[in-house]
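Complex 256.
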Amino acid sequence: MKNSPFDQLFSLRGRVAAVTGANTGIGRGMAEALAAAGADIAAVGRSDPSDTLAAVKALGRRAAWIKADFGARPDYAAVIKEIVDKLGGLHVLVNNAGTIRRNNSIDFTEADWDAVMDVNLKSVFFLSQAAARHMIPSGGGKIINIASMLSFQGGIRVPSYTASKSGIAGLTKILANEWAVSGINVNAIAPGYIATNNTAALQADVKRNAEILARIPSGRWGDPKDLGGAAVFLASSASDYVQGIVLPVDGGWLAR
Ligand code: NAP
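Predicted structure with NAP bound:
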């Protein structure tokens, strides 16, 4: 069958995509989608991503684990250098790794504030900076940040998470403003309620689970695979004129 021009537009063949926190959940779902579109994958994180690497290799792509703990001030330049040394380049960075702490704001501790902000916001900025220092002289690239419904809404009992994800929306815009001219697209995806470790407590809470489901027009929790299409779009040439957006993939949650 003849390839259509659209295959080319969305193809990631010959590109290297780094996905943070790709060992599980949404990161794994996006890594597999990017590999299915043709990208080689650097899985950047602290836990062994063997399952993800095996799935990527089964798709005929190359894959490597780059170790980094974003809660422990990693050497961001060294992380990017290791990706380039192992896979021969870096064209796409997906800042997915994230964490959450739940407590009433009146009792929330500085330790819980810092733990979330370091992983969800500070490391996103400094890893993006290190990636851009490689991408700009190489002709550009794509940076995709993972935002949240709490980039738009306040939420409850998750003050550092809301601050970090609202910060991601702003960071996505300023980096797009500064780096678009250098050929880097910076955008974000805002997942709705997706069934992963991050939301295990909510899924297990019968009352909250029912409240959440009642508000989702699609009538179900999202699956990590539901993020794949948006990730491929924002990683590919199909989005070359898209800058600074926060794209909800939420089964209609925000439309309610
Ligand atoms: P998850 O299954 O808990 O995965 C989180 C990932 O981040 C894991 O790979 C985790 O590694 C990694 N991570 C956490 N702390 C890290 C650290 N200090 N250093 C390196 N990696 C670290 O949750 P998920 O739902 O897939 O979350 C992925 C992203 O989507 C997060 O940014 C989250 O805020 C966002 N999000 C999720 C939802 C949802 O409904 N699930 C909704 C909106 C946004 P370990 O396995 O080693 O902990």
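The first strand starts at residue 16 and ends at 20.
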